[in-house]
Structures are given as structure tokens and as C-alpha cells.
């Protein structure tokens, strides 16, 4: 049971200040908190000053370019975050979403190399159920992408599996086994020794360092000969035909690219893990009806494609 003192303190507090407190606590930065709350930095500073005065504690102290919570803030934070999440969940249950009537822009982010494989089928699937949706696709590097997701400027991202923080959610979308594209004149079978001795073209957006296949090979103590690096699988596939190099890439994408090239598609002779692509989204959108429908629709599409294979 609440004491009279506790009830009086709660009655004097502006509960909107707790939203500001929660965002500062999560972001550890007043500027980022202001952006996510769609407030000016001065408004956030003023709200924090009011809460400090009412609670009699600094709550956050400056540390470098950000802030750190005081012991009292650490003590308050779990209860405040849980209460705000519960309130948000309660409000979202009152909302409904009708895909057939939805007029909104869906912003997807995916690796540029994979867009030809993923985007056309995603648009076709969404258009069947939500013909008024507009789908915009982009390709951002991970550091920028994380921030755009948190700010709500990207709805969903498709990316390789990677560790993330508590502000982002992820789940597996699909797995694509690797195969090897070889020139039409490549004779005979491809075994591990022949694969490692051959010259390869690799596709990567990294300026330096190993690409995914080479990292997987290195974990087995193996190394191949990469003769050329490029940014797009189409460029690499053309180089396979022109120069006779080998290209390792996801099987379905290889079939799509090779339709007009006439290269050979061979099984990967070394046991390498499939390319795993995950869906990423902001945690605060977990229970948003429109976003939940979008995630579920894309996951069901990926599951149907896996069964068809």
C-alpha cells in the first residue's frame, strides 16, 4: 500500500518527465534523446532540470560527450522503463491496422547486392494485401543504419546476422546456401583442392579485410586466391565469364544472375555456413500493429520461398 508521503510525491510530479528520463537513461546523451523524442535540446534540458528539482538528485552527470546515471537514477530506471512499456502496450491494443486501407511509406534497408533477389518479391507480396503502400529501399552501412532504425527513419532492415544492443530487435529472415559460379568452359567437377587453387572474384563493400566466405574459410585454416574484389555480384558474374575466375554467392541469386550469362553453377565443395539474413527493427515498435503486420508478412514470404526450394 502506498504511504501518504509516496502518494503526495507522485501527485506533484509531471509524469511526462519520466519519458524524458527514460530516453536520456537509454541513450546516455541529451542530444540523441531530444531527437528521438522530437523535442528541442533545450526542452529536454528544462524537463531534466524540473525532475532533478522535484527528486532532489542530479540524476545524470556529464561524462565525455554524454551523461551517466547517478545511483538514484539507476535505482529508479527499471521501474520507470517497465511502467512506460506497459502503458505503451496497453495503448497499442486499442489500435487497429487494415492493410487494404493503409496509406503509408514503408522504408526498407537491405544490402545493395541482395536487393534484386529480395525487393521485387517483397513488393509483389505486400502489394497483394496492401495496394496503397509505397515501398522505398535504401542501403546504409551498419553504423548509420542502427541510428536510422532508432530514430524511426527506417522501418525494417535486412542485414547479415550480427550482435546488436537492447534498443534493436532481430529475428532470422532466411538462409541462403552458397554455390560457385564458374565460366562455361570450366570442365569436370569442382573439389576442395581445385576450389582453393583457382583464382576468385569476391564481392564485398569493405575497403579492406576479408569478406564473408574468406572469414569462414579462415576458421577452417583454409585460404583461397582472390584475384579481384568488386561491389556487385553482376560485375563479378561478368568477370567470371570474361576472365574465367570463380565466384561464390548465394544459390538463388546465382540462378537469377546467370539467366542470360551461361556460366556454370556448381555446388560449394567446402562446407561453409549459409548466408544468414536477419530482420532488424526498433524495440519500441515491437507491438505496433502496422509494423507487426509488416514483419509477419515478410517472414511468411521467406518461409514460403524456403519451402518452394
From TrEMBL:
Keyword check for Glycoprotein: no
Keywords noted in UniProt: DNA-binding, Transcription, Transcription regulation
Superkingdom of origin organism: Bacteria
Pfam families: HTH_1 (PF00126), LysR_substrate (PF03466)
Domain HTH lysR-type per the UniProt entry, residue ranges: 13-70
Classification via InterPro entries: LysR-type_TF, LysR_HTH_N, LysR_subst-bd, WH-like_DNA-bd_sf, WH_DNA-bd_sf, YidZ_PBP2
Gene3D superfamilies: Periplasmic binding protein-like II, Winged helix-like DNA-binding domain superfamily/Winged helix DNA-binding domain
Keyword Protein biosynthesis: no
Similarity annotation: Belongs to the LysR transcriptional regulatory family.
Name this protein carries in UniProt: Transcriptional regulator
